[in-house]
């Protein structure tokens, strides 16, 4: 267990470091205005990604454990579902995209396929492959950006083509991996499901990801559209540093414990409460340390990594640092709300937070800019943390019944 977590953590650190360095090089080469526009385009891509094959990756983890590894019909319907969601997602992308053209949609397709490939590796406990799949894109982007820097070609247009080309390559590589890894799934012993039943069971898992991205990524997009590309750039810098703090809970809960929590729920139900309590203690400690660190060293981090031109991002990072504590606690509670039939409860909480975040951002960002975005993000994390802990105690452990 420790070895597996170490492998995943190392991979995530390498991936996050690669993404971090890529953002740093781009930010230093672009003006805050250009960097804000670029990150707004990336935010749109991330918002749309969960809409392709919505929920397939999350549903697979549950389906695989419940059907003892038989997924022939699952795979058949997931292919049909992919094409069903393709056109609506592309139309939405065309309506919302601006300076970055249609090629950026390749990133949406690529990320969707990578997510599905990761899920297929998780259910088989092939965590080394999970690490490779998650690290490939950020490392390739970093290498590409460094080459552009060396030859003095680092412009928004070149980044646009670089990201699109890398995504196209990874799309086909991930697709080839999926075909290869599922070649032996031919028994089809599980009960056959219709497309409608499949969609009905899968999409709630995608909704939780989509709602999360709304309150996690949409503020950069809204800042760019309703306030200022320059301040979207400052906020993006603070946000880039903040998400480095989320590596630990992401690795532990989303990459390692998630498939095991489904297994424990089905086979060792009595162990769940102990796992939750121990996780709360660890996340409380680590979250407190993370918040204090990023609040105390925000100025030093901004100047050291992004130079003086992004000094306006310091106050935004100070505010956002409070998110770390609540995100760590939410990660521990939230993982238990995807077992049994509790995903609908989790989605209600996340939908409420997504709506709260969107409404407050739309109301206050035009007047208060990035300060409104940062404060709204903190408030959203607090509300979500409280809801998750209420939900897991009421519906999972029956504390309030």
From TrEMBL:
InterPro entries per record: Poly_Biosynth_Transport, Polysacc_synth
This protein's name: Polysaccharide biosynthesis protein C-terminal domain-containing protein
Topology of this chain in the membrane: Multi-pass membrane protein
Keyword Protein transport part of the UniProt annotation: no
Pfam family, one: Polysacc_synt
GO CC, one annotated term: plasma membrane
Annotated keywords: Cell membrane, Membrane, Transmembrane, Transmembrane helix
Superkingdom as given in the UniProt entry: Bacteria
Record organism: Vibrio tarriae
UniProt subcellular location: Cell membrane
Main location: membrane
TM region positions: 42-61, 73-94, 100-118, 130-154, 160-181, 193-214, 234-258, 279-298, 310-329, 349-365, 371-392
């Amino acid at each position: 267990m420790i070895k597996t977590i170490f492998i995943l953590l190392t991979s995530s650190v390498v991936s996050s470091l690669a993404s971090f360095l890529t953002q740093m090089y781009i930010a230093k080469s672009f003006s805050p205005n250009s960097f804000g526009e670029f990150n707004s385009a990336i935010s749109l891509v991330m918002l749309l990604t969960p809409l392709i094959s919505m929920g397939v990756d999350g549903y697979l983890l549950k389906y695989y454990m419940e059907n003892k590894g038989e997924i022939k019909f699952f795979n058949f319907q997931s292919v049909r579902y992919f094409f069903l969601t393709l056109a609506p997602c592309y139309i939405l992308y065309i309506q919302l995209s601006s300076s970055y053209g249609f090629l950026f949609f390749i990133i949406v397709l690529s990320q969707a396929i990578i997510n599905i490939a990761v899920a297929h590796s998780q259910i088989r406990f092939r965590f080394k492959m999970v690490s490779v799949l998650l690290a490939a894109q950020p490392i390739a982007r970093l290498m590409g950006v460094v080459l552009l820097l060396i030859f003095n070609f680092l412009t928004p247009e070149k980044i646009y083509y670089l990201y699109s080309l890398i995504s196209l390559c990874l799309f086909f590589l991930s697709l080839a991996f999926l075909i290869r890894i599922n070649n032996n799934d031919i028994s089809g012993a599980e009960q056959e499901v219709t497309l409608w039943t499949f969609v009905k069971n899968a999409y709630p898992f995608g909704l939780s990801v989509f709602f999360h991205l709304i309150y996690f990524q949409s503020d950069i997009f809204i800042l760019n559209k309703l306030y200022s590309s320059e301040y979207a750039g400052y906020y993006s810098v603070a946000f880039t540093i903040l998400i480095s703090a989320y590596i630990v809970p992401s690795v532990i809960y989303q990459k390692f414990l998630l498939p095991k929590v489904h297994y424990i729920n089905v086979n060792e139900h009595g162990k769940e409460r102990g796992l939750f309590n121990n996780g709360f203690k660890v996340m409380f400690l680590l979250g407190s340390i993370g918040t204090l660190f990023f609040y105390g060293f925000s100025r030093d981090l901004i100047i050291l990594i992004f130079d003086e031109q992004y000094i306006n991002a310091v106050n935004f990072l100070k505010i956002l640092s409070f998110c770390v504590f609540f995100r760590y606690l939410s990660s521990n509670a939230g993982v238990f709300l995807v077992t049994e039939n509790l995903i609908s409860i989790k989605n209600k909480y996340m939908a409420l937070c997504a709506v709260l975040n969107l409404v407050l951002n739309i109301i206050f960002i035009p007047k208060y800019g990035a300060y409104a975005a940062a404060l709204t993000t903190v408030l959203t994390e607090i509300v979500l943390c409280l809801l998750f802990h209420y939900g897991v105690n009421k519906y999972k452990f029956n504390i309030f019944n």
